[in-house]
Design goal:
about 80% helix; mainly alpha
């Protein structure tokens, strides 16, 4: 039963990853990393399918092997965070404490992404 739960969760993360590949501000890779982890606990065949995927496989293998993110992935992630913060600032017009809190959180996320090793595919 637990294995089936991991399988369902992995399928959900793949679906979210596919949606993220289509929608510009929704992430893709993190959902596929989570899906690969779920499939590792439930379906070696689906895990192998993800890791051998021609488009997403190299990124997933680099993350699993070295915790590495490619230069393009780092640029897209940080650019997406900056764009998201700009949209938040422009549309929500937050008071400065909330704006500062969101900026610190997003800055911390960007620092984490930039601190990862750079992937070599």
């Amino acid at each position: 039963m637990i294995r089936f739960g991991w399988l369902i969760l992995g399928c959900l993360f793949v679906a979210l990853g596919v949606i993220g590949a289509i929608l510009p501000l929704m992430p893709t890779t993190i959902f596929l990393i989570l899906a690969a982890g779920c499939f590792a606990r439930s379906s070696p065949r689906l895990e192998a399918w993800l890791l051998d995927h021609p488009r997403f496989g190299p990124t997933l293998r680099a993350w699993r092997r070295d915790g590495a993110i490619g230069v393009k992935g780092k640029a897209m992630a940080c650019g997406g965070m900056a764009l998201g913060y700009g949209l938040f600032w422009a549309t929500a017009r937050p008071h400065w404490p909330l704006a500062l809190c969101v900026a610190v959180i997003m800055g911390g996320c960007a620092a984490f992404v930039l601190s990862r090793p750079t992937a070599r595919y």
